[in-house]
Description:
single chain; mainly alpha; two-stranded parallel ribbon; 57% helix
Amino acid sequence: MTKIVINNAEEFSAYYDSCCANPPKFPISLEVKELTEKSARTITQNNALHKYFDMLADNLRIAGLDVMQTLRHDIEIPWTAELVKALIWAVIQRAKLDTESTTKLSTGDVGMIYDIIHRHMIDKHSISVMFPDREQLRLTQMYGDKK
């Protein structure tokens, strides 16, 4: 009998996809550990986080907004993913979680910070950028970033 242990949502998704492609031989023993709010963010979530920075920067530029217009600085600076991370994401992260690195974020932390930024961008600038999903990341990896 095969024993399968699934520790997080990413592993579950991979196992589910493999089962759809090649159904397992029965009987199997499946153990699923309960996810907690403080589960470390996944590699996929990290990739999505950085993709989101890039997408938000693109949308801010398309809307004709620069850093000065968005954050009230005195010089015009076009948005980049790095500026989104440093001037928007990191500021919220420090204020809410008192941590500097995105590597220290839990899966719940990422969602909470995204929600704060998303609401602000809609309210103040009418910009809505959905957090990237697995399919979007897969297509970006396969075909590159087409802007």
